[in-house]
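Whether sequence alone determines local backbone shape is best considered at the level of individual chains. In the encoding step, the backbone of a single protein was reduced to a row of integers, each denoting a local shape. For completeness, the protein is quoted in full, as a sequence line and a line of structure tokens.
***
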Amino acid sequence: MIQKFFDCHSHWATEKGYLFRTQAERDQQKKIWQTNFQLFSEDEQAQYFREQNVETILDISWIKDLTLDEMKPYHDYVFDIQSKNRDVMFGQWMQFDPRRHGIKAVEEFQRCVEKRVGFVGLCVNGQVTGVPACDPLWDPFYKASIDAGSPVMILAGLTGIGQGLPGGKGIVLDDGHPRHIDRVAARYPELKILAARPAWPWQDDMLAILLHKPNVSYELHGWGPKQFTPALKKEIGRRMQDRVMFGCDFPVLRYEKVIQDWTAEGYSESVLEKILCSNAQRYFT
């Protein structure tokens, strides 16, 4: 029986941190993920994690659209809350737009690392920024992550952001193709890369990259395991059982449902324990 879960990627559910800022986006949440919009206070959020026996890395991703001066107080906010809840908040993912922020964003990333409140890692969102992960604009961020000894999360596959909105909110899905991860892994063999989200519709491409590039691991937030492709389900129980990690994508998905679905897939207890906890504990510590 698994006693604790390690969630490699979820979002803030507080009024200050909630990913979806507009009513239209919040209405889309129910259509795409079948969960109702709900705000938590900072204390309620931490208590929910405790009740679910989960330790998580959170992502306050929406602030990458702000100026750096506007962004810094949000970074200080998440670290302040994390410092009071270290038992359930392992760390934070930082997102930036390299076209807007440049080297100053690298300096802000380094400032956050130096606060030493917990894990700090870069999350590259090629689709929302319009800058694929292999674009040279990201290179200073990768070098800073190597210097910090910090894994980088690179998002791949279909995103729920903009889904169903006119023009997909301007997002080009190909900017999240796994080929961009492959190029980064080849360019920086010393960089620990955590590919994130099931890379549908390019799932076989992602599995090939995982087999070929040992510096790439895989985290599966945003989808329930029932929706994984047959090839991915098969590899989770075999060759990828030490390389795949759990992500929930709270608050649009909830632990009660996602973990129940994982346990219903028929994996052995030892494989589930790796996916839901120990692979991430080993990877991040």
